[in-house]
Amino acid sequence: MESFGERAVRAAREAAENETRGDGRNPDPGSGFDRKSGVFVTINTASGNLRGCIGYPEPVLPLGEALISVARSACHDPRFRPLTPEEAAECIFEVTVLTPPERIQYSSEKELLNQIEIGRDGLIITMMGRRGLLLPQVPVEWGWNKEEYLENLSMKANLPPGAWKSKSAVIEKFGGEIYAEESPRGNVIRK
């Protein structure tokens, strides 16, 4: 019997592949997907290049519904041309199920840095009507330290790299369970 992570990734792949073919049918990931949860679907080429990543940071929909929605949307990530059925077959799918974001309370840069753990914490910055989010795996994949992580988070929100140091910046953190194919349509592992 497939694990929760395997079912999540398989459903994301099937929803995305259906989307690329114009097929409106949605897969059923099975039991355990009823609770509301934030979720992201990341699509990478087999060589590791990002091809699409879309998600809901907040728990606004039941996980199964959110998963299918973001898998379909990841095929149309505005940073890239739409994913084709041929490309989808060669890509690696990853699902990150999120814990609800929590605001980090801090009074100094040092105190903020002490509350962040690379590889465990995803981050959201909100400032000047802008918002940016990076998943927990991103700083690990890029080899960033905490300051680099916060600088890149600021830039993701179209803010200057040092925006995270501003007293008006709101920083939130969240956790994520990450499940990914090892190869296209391959075994699913928990990262």
Largest sheet: 5 strands, antiparallel
Low-confidence region ranges: none
Number of helices: 6
Task: Compute the average pLDDT.
Answer: 96
Please state the CA-atom Rg, rounded to the nearest Å.
17 Å
Q: Which strand order spans the largest sheet, edge to edge or round the barrel?
A: 2-1-3-8-9
CATH fold label of the largest domain: Glycoprotein, Type 4 Pilin
CATH architecture group name of the largest domain? 2-Layer Sandwich
Determine the strand fraction and express it as a percent band. Answer: 25-35%
Helix content: 25-40%
Strand segment tally: 9
Distance between the termini: 20 Å
Count of individual domains: 2
What do we call the CATH homologous superfamily of the largest domain?
Hypothetical protein ph0010, domain 1
SS-based class: alpha+beta
What is the CATH domain class of the largest domain? Answer: Alpha Beta
Order of helices and strands: HEEHHEEHEEHHEEE
Using brief descriptors, characterize the structure shown.
single chain; 191 residues; alpha+beta; Dna Ligase, domain 1; 2 domains; 4-stranded antiparallel beta sheet
